[in-house]
Amino acid sequence: MNFKNFFWIVFIISGLILPVMAADEMNQTENPWYWYNKAVDLANEGKYQEALQANEQALAINESIPLAQANKAGILVQLGRYDEAIMAADKALAIKANTTVAFAVAYSNKGDALRHLGRIEEANAAFAKAFELDKSLVPPVLTSLSVPATTPKSPPLWFTAPVAITLVLIFCSYFLRIRE
């Protein structure tokens, strides 16, 4: 194969593939999941205001994504906008969808907002519902209620070893006295 044929093959292939890739990139901004993922990334970086804007972009494209609504609630909690967070969580919970994870996250974020507002009983109820849907979401408020009791911690070895040796020596000296 000579250089001229190779050049034409590469040119034709790139002429077919590059427009498809460019179209895919252009359509990303119309994809609500693109904006949702961007919001999650920004929130993980601590850029909550930018995360909220990206999440709003996702909801502007499709407001019936419960995970995006639940994510909005979590972002609003981080921004200290607790009443708005509760409304966003309620909106996520009102969407008729079979998404247990989204509902669990919405309840958890709602519980967090309620806790910040001092509405502890309502927060506990929301956290309990989140835990019921997803056992990995154990909030600090429910930790003592939902996690089985653990055995008490053993004393450190530096304390127990000398005590054990002392007890063995006492037992041995006592045992030897009885035998004499």
Describe the model:
The protein has 180 residues and is mostly helical. It has one domain (31-179): Serine Threonine Protein Phosphatase 5, Tetratricopeptide repeat (Alpha Horseshoe), CATH 1.25.40. The chain contains nine helices and no strands. It has helices at residues 3-28, 32-44, 48-61, 66-78, 82-94, 100-116, 120-133, 143-146, 157-179. Helix 3 (48-61) runs antiparallel to helix 4, helix 4 packs antiparallel against helix 5 and helix 4 (66-78) runs parallel beside helix 6. Mean pLDDT is 77; it is low at 141-152.
Return the CATH topology.
Serine Threonine Protein Phosphatase 5, Tetratricopeptide repeat
Low-pLDDT regions = 141-152
Query: Based on the structure given, which CATH architecture is correct?
Result: Alpha Horseshoe
Major sheet summary line: none
CATH 4th-level superfamily: Tetratricopeptide repeat domain
- In total, the number of domains comes to 1
**Basic shape:** elongated
**Helical content class:** over 70%
Order of helices and strands: HHHHHHHHH
* Total E-strand runs: 0
Query: Mean pLDDT score, rounded?
Result: 77
Which structural class do the helices and strands define? mainly alpha
Number of helices: 9
Q: How far is it from the N-terminal to the C-terminal residue, by CA?
A: 105 Å
Radius of gyration using CA atoms only: 30 Å
Highest CATH level, the class: Mainly Alpha
Tell me the fraction of residues in β-strands, as a range: under 5%
